[in-house]
Task: structure prediction
Amino acid sequence: MTEQGEKEVRLPENDNNEAPAETVTTPPSQTTSMVVEPLQDLHTPHKRRRLILVIGVIGATMDLCCLPITYFYAFKFGTSLSLQDIFAIITGVYGMLSFTHYAFRSLKLFRSKTSPKWRPVGWTKWGMLEFLQINVLIVISLVEIELVAGTAPSNPIVRLCAMPSPTICFYLGFLFCSTAILTQLGWKLPFNMSSTPKGTPWRPALFGFIEDAGAIEGQGGVEYRQQLIKRYEMSPRFRRMVLLLSWGWGIGLLVVATIATVLIMVVETDIGFGVGWGLPYIFGAVYVFITVKFVRYQLAKERAEWGTKEPAPTGATLV
Result:
């Protein structure tokens, strides 16, 4: 009786028929059993959705960058309004479009009828915040605290009111760099990072952002979350790409935030306001262009290499 997959080789008898046939078992061929699994495809938004996303990014940039700068200079040099009134207007309208989107986005996760389609993998409860939602809420709180503190005095602190964009960069830069370090150290998550459960190895914060944005803004839903997790776990090049992007964006955001903060403090107040609000977004536009080129190159190289690469051994560390 041989195990399944083993082959029996029966040796022929000798000419004198003296020895009985001997059975030799050979193990199954490892060459045929080692099959490389096809690379997991990812959900891609259709053309109309991509157009909506582009319009949304432009609208968010106008909402969070262009309009505050326009209001400040237009009201200060074109009207007789006091600084306190000007900043009251800016604080009142700042982020209105983005916060509205945040509210509708939250409804998809909070409503019991819609949450099964959009929520992270493994979640059985509705009304829970995903990783991106939590960090956006933290950023909103920090920015609003700065604006309220800067406009509270009768003579508003213009330099403090110019700090929201650098503050966002400082926070995201620290988040990306710190989670990249924890990922490389192999530490365990103390909480759920969207679909990545507590107790599993850390993943870069950028990975959580990509998952959440692709699932909701990209309309990929739970299916996209599953695809992204599988792609991350099976492809070393994909993991390396996400890690490099985390370091690149993290360090870049910290550098531009530092430069913007220094300029806000040393240049003339009115100029510093425009620099503080605008410089991080100029940096962001350049970095987005570089990121798109880098990702396309890495994904093309990943697909070219995948067919010739042996599957990773079981239990390989995800870095």
Notes: Confidence is low (pLDDT under 50) at residues 1-9, 15-19, 21-33, 311-319.
